[in-house]
Amino acid sequence: MQRKMSDRSCSISNELRLEGRFCDVIISVDGVEFKAHKLILSCCSIYFRTLFSNWDSADKMVYQIPGISAEMMGLIINYAYTRTVPITEDNVQSLLAAADQFNVMGIVSLCCEFLSSRLCFENCIGICRLTDYYHCPDLRAAACVYILHHFEEVSQVSEEFLDLSAEELAHIIEKDELNVRREEAVFEAVLRWIAHDPQNRRQHIACLLSKVRLALLQPDYFMNNVKAHEYVKDNANCKHLIISALSEIYDLNSYGQSSSVNANPFTRPRLPYAILFAIGGWSGGGATSAIETYDSRTDKWLNIPWEQESPVAYHGSAYLKGHVYVIGGFDGTDYFNIVKRFDPLQKTWQQVAPMHSRRCYVSVTVVDNFIYAMGGFDGYIRLNTAERYDPDTNQWTLITPMHEQRSDASATTLNGKVYICGGFDGDQCLSSAEVFNPSTNQWSLIAPMSSRRSGVGVMAYGNQVYAVGGFDGNSRLQSVEAYNPIANAWHAVPSMLNPRSNFGIEVMDGLLFVVGGFNGFSTTIATECYEEDTNEWYDAHSMGITRSAVSCCVVPGLSNVMEYIARQHYYQHSSSMDILFTSSTRSSPL
């Protein structure tokens, strides 16, 4: 266990070292001598503690240390006295190696934190390989998770990806945790890897193809791009894979499921990277505490049972720093300024600081690690006030009020700015919209929408602000429009399949989801999604509980994601995100 010194003790000890006072050891490296104190070095490193504890070294003054540069030893000794070390992309690998060699675990931890903060598409594989040589379990876990969660981008831009061995690539793509929107991306990554050295790598196509969830491919894609590919046709070992996959594809398209979904990896959906939470709402004539979670990989909802949670509707929700926040709302009697925080890993609720105002029909979004709550109805008036929450201080702070009173509006974040659209001012439904710049603390009106929209859903998607559905004062809308901030103009987007107001809205897996709501006659369970690339709306699986005034948020990267999906029995094995690297090539990740 590393011993810690106070800042004052560190300062005094370092002054004594620099002045050469009371030094009882000289560390000599490549002809460079460092005067120091055995006690200080021993507190920093088990290596030095052991070195100085040998029976024959009690009176020894000078120690020749091989296998390290004078520069690295100087950084280690300086760290022993100051508990600080300058880490750069140029020195981090050498420093990590030296710190590991001399058991300076404080520097090892700092190097790991530095590397973890620098993870990107191009270096994540190299950083993961680096942990094969040093004891950095947290860094390894972070790098493995990064590779799996960003596999599509890594496979497209990383030179390190092309240097993987066949065994390493197979180990990665067989993972249930591999995050891909479409299974086609996995097959195309395999082709990209083979194309880097086709003469030597095409022989591995059968092994790699067996790790692709072939039955999850679109049938036309499977026939035209997989079955007909020259690598597949020319490899006899692929024949039984193709026959098996065709059988599973037939079952899935004929009966909606496979008879061997558990046993056959061809048919098992990947685990989702993100989960859509639908929280609370108005159902059966009153507020509900129901929470359902949606897995886009299987297109299934799961009802999450909670005890002792109060019902709430017309509230806001947000995900920030590992927690889901439920903000304001109405339970049929009281208007809330209450804010509750849910920990999806521990499955616990905690009440945090309340807002300054009671806010039903509140609009909520997140910018720069702050939660913004705007407008709403406090039981007496429609509000134009706005405030933001800092989770680090657990405090709400009022910001500049909006230009208009807005309840039942909706807000989103695009390019670091808050956009709020529509709503009801107490007299009429609004078509106006405004933008807030956090750096200036100012609201500005932007071009109005083409329709009045209260109970609207507003969401940033594809570098535009979408305004979906709502109520115009006469009827529930299924129309959609999108705002281009560069042109300061709205344009029409294809209408939803169903009219609705007061619904949940979120973006997940590159799709814009709308959930539940009120269609003018009744609350609904219907869910649909819009894809910008195809410019079309699609039906998704309906919720289990009919409700309006529901709020949605997306929770990414859960380590316990299986507790929030409907078909846990698909994944009965012990899941691990660790990636095994078999090659001995040292890479330079930075």
Automatic annotation (TrEMBL):
Q: Which domain of life is it from?
A: Eukaryota
Q: Which CDD domains match?
A: BACK_KLHL10, BTB_POZ_KLHL10
Q: Which is a Pfam family this sequence falls into?
A: BACK
Q: Name one GO biological process term.
A: homeostasis of number of cells within a tissue
Q: What range(s) does the BTB domain occupy? A: 23-89
Q: Name one GO cellular component term.
A: cytoplasm
Q: Could you list this entry's UniProt keywords, alphabetically sorted.
A: Kelch repeat, Repeat
Q: What Gene3D superfamilies is this protein classified in?
A: 1.25.40.420, Kelch-type beta propeller, Potassium Channel Kv1.1, Chain A
Identify this protein by name. Answer: Kelch like family member 10
Organism from which the protein derives:
Taeniopygia guttata
Phylogenetic lineage = Eukaryota, Metazoa, Chordata, Craniata, Vertebrata
